[in-house]
Amino acid sequence: MKISAAIALTFAASASAFAPAPVERASTSLNMDRRAAATQIATGAAVLAGLPQLALADGARSAVTVQRARGIYGQRIAGLEGAVNAGDFGAVASEKNAFILFNSGGITDKAKKSQAVAGTNAIFAAIRAKDAGALKKAYGDYKSANEISVITVDMTNGQGYSSDADWKTRTPAGAIYVR
């Protein structure tokens, strides 16, 4: 009897060694009351409500960036003249990003920007309708309203650009005459 009591006592001691001990958990999102959760959500919402003011800061708009957008994307748009005259809708549609980037970066006046967006929409409406006449008219109106023309490089008058910040760098207009 003494041996069976000793064995039972040994099993009980070993079982209690592996039993989980009650531990006080730290306050987390899993064990908070409603008031604490509502307070935390309200604080987060107040912080997020102040962030859009930071996102509206547009310090990248300067005369140089406008000139760069007008130069690079304006030349891509002006280069579509042959495709428009030939009725190549795919070539014009492939330059959709040039129109978008020209409208957003090359135009600073809000009224002119809305006109340019309307002109872009007219161009792509003509592409969707497969109407070559409407495409020519919309493209011509867009170019004249935004003063877009092809810039030709005259190699006899010197270099085409002077630094990497110039918009003509890495474009066909940026050729440098070297003797």
Q: Could you walk me through the main structural features you see in this protein, from its secondary elements to its overall organization?
A:
The chain is an all-alpha fold. It has a domain of 112 residues: Four Helix Bundle (Hemerythrin (Met), subunit A) (Up-down Bundle), CATH 1.20.120.1740. The chain has 9 helices and no strands. The protein starts with a helix and ends in a 34-residue tail after the last helix.
Structure characteristics:
signal, mainly alpha, Photosystem II Psb31 protein, 179 residues, PSII_Pbs31
- How large is the radius of gyration? 34 Å
What's the CATH C level of the domain at 63-174? Mainly Alpha
What share of residues are in beta strands? Answer: under 5%
Class by SSE composition: mainly alpha
Q: Roughly how much helix do the residues carry, as a percent range?
A: 55-70%
Mean pLDDT, to the nearest integer, reads: 80
CATH architecture of the domain at 63-174: Up-down Bundle
**Largest sheet features:** none
CATH topology of the domain at 63-174, what is it called? Answer: Four Helix Bundle (Hemerythrin (Met), subunit A)
Given as residue ranges, the uncertain stretches (5+ residues, pLDDT < 50) are none
Query: Helical region count?
Result: 9
Protein name: Photosystem II Psb31 protein
Signal peptide: 1-17
Organism: Skeletonema marinoi
Keywords: Signal
Can you describe this structure in just a few lines?
Residues 1-17 form the signal peptide. The chain is mostly helical and 179 residues long.
